[in-house]
Design brief:
Helix content is 39%, strand content 17%. With 362 residues, it is of the alpha/beta class. It binds pyridoxal-5'-phosphate (PLP).
């Protein structure tokens, strides 16, 4: 089965085999070595200075990294502005609400870019300690303009918390220039490892803010940081998914790093976009708004999502639905993971057949 959903991704054999390494206790030095190597290699993905930045690993899906980041970094008297233009921005607000963190939302329609003028006015009127924003909003495939957001936030000296869960490893992330305090990401999207390990890239001077209550036991970033610095872990980590991430990072560097991955994704996504356009299936967003990772498309006339999904699945492809109000009109195709241009050509051929057999020709 070829997974064209935004994670988990189709694995390479190299990563799959890595999970068969020997059983390991998370309190033994071999585990400490594995954990330290992964943390160090994660900082190398964007050439970060390790005296300023570090990676903190948690066992859980990408949302656990988002929740660890937001709940651990905003102090008791902090106030966070959350920029929303999709499901994941809204999830950041839910996290802030659950942990009783002072927050406001700068809302947008899901198909709209971030309005920097409104952002500036909101920051001027408010008294915000942090701004949280999603880099690649997977809801629509939009790559948000973090450059613009960061420039505006810098005017007010406000650091950013970035959800880069579906962009880390494939899009440009300028940690220092953007004044990030932290960035949440995961193993099983652009890094091509398996679900179960996620991580927060965090500035060492931001990981343990003064006057910050421990709002959660399991997702308290400070306790992971302290113990991981000492070679330990507060709780059992998912050893096999660590093995997979360890190998996936080596494979990632061998292939040429994030720029190479972005080029590959762009080629494949471009092939999908062009092929679908030829069939009259139009993308939701313009070419200058999209990530390299995932594109959203309007459903062809007379083919609803369940039919498209099921017929593609019969042919060996899993695509992804639109979320909430977009479910009726959209579908999404991600090109992360071990996917070739021949795979995409087969996908396009099957979609053409589905449209033809329905006799609507769009
Ligand atoms: C996938 C994703 C997440 C995390 O989702 P999980 O189901 O917890 O892995 C968070 N943010 C974005 C932008 C995502 O694409």
């Amino acid at each position: 089965m070829l997974l064209l959903n935004p994670g988990p991704v189709v694995l390479t054999e190299r990563v799959r085999q890595a999970m068969l390494r020997p059983d390991l206790c998370h309190r033994e030095p071999e585990f400490a070595e594995l954990q330290s190597r992964i943390r160090e290699n994660l900082t190398k993905v964007y050439d970060l200075e390790t005296d300023i930045w570090t990676a903190v690993l948690v066992t859980g899906s990408g949302t656990s990294a988002m929740e660890a980041m937001v709940s651990s970094i905003v102090p008791a008297n902090g106030n966070i502005l959350i920029i929303e233009n999709g499901v994941y921005g809204e999830r950041l607000s839910k996290i802030a609400a659950i942990h009783n963190i002072n927050h406001s939302a700068l809302t947008h329609d899901w198909d709209k870019p971030i309005n920097l003028v409104r952002l500036e006015l909101t920051l001027r009127d408010g008294n915000f300690s942090h701004v949280a924003v999603v880099h690649h909003e997977t809801t629509t495939g939009r790559l948000n303009d973090i450059d613009g957001v960061a420039r505006t936030c810098k005017e007010f000296g406000i650091p950013l918390l970035l959800d880069a869960v579906s962009s880390f490893g494939a899009e440009d992330i300028r940690f220092d220039e953007w004044n990030l305090a932290a960035c949440a990401a995961t193993a099983n999207k652009c890094l091509h490892a398996v679900p179960g390990t996620s991580f927060v890239m965090v500035r060492r001077d931001a990981v343990k803010p003064a006057d910050t209550p421990a709002r959660t036991l399991y997702l308290n970033l400070a306790s992971y940081y302290d113990q991981q610095e000492a070679g330990g872990t507060p709780f059992t980590q998912s050893v096999q998914t660590f093995y997979a991430l360890d190998e996936a990072l080596l494979e990632f560097f061998d292939a040429g790093g994030w720029q190479e991955r972005r080029d590959t994704y762009r080629r494949l996504a471009g092939q999908v976009r062009k092929g679908l356009k030829n069939m009259g299936i139009m993308p939701l967003l313009n070419a200058n708004e999209i990530s390299c990772v995932l594109n959203a498309y309007f459903l062809p006339v007379n083919v609803d999502y369940p039919e498209l999904h099921d017929k593609l699945k019969d042919a060996g492809f899993v695509i992804y639905a639109g979320q909430a109000s977009l479910a009726e009109v959209m579908f999404r195709i991600s090109t992360m993971g071990k996917i070739s241009k021949d795979d995409i050509q087969r996908l396009l051929d099957v979609i053409a057949d589905i449209i033809d057999s329905d006799g609507n020709g769009v």
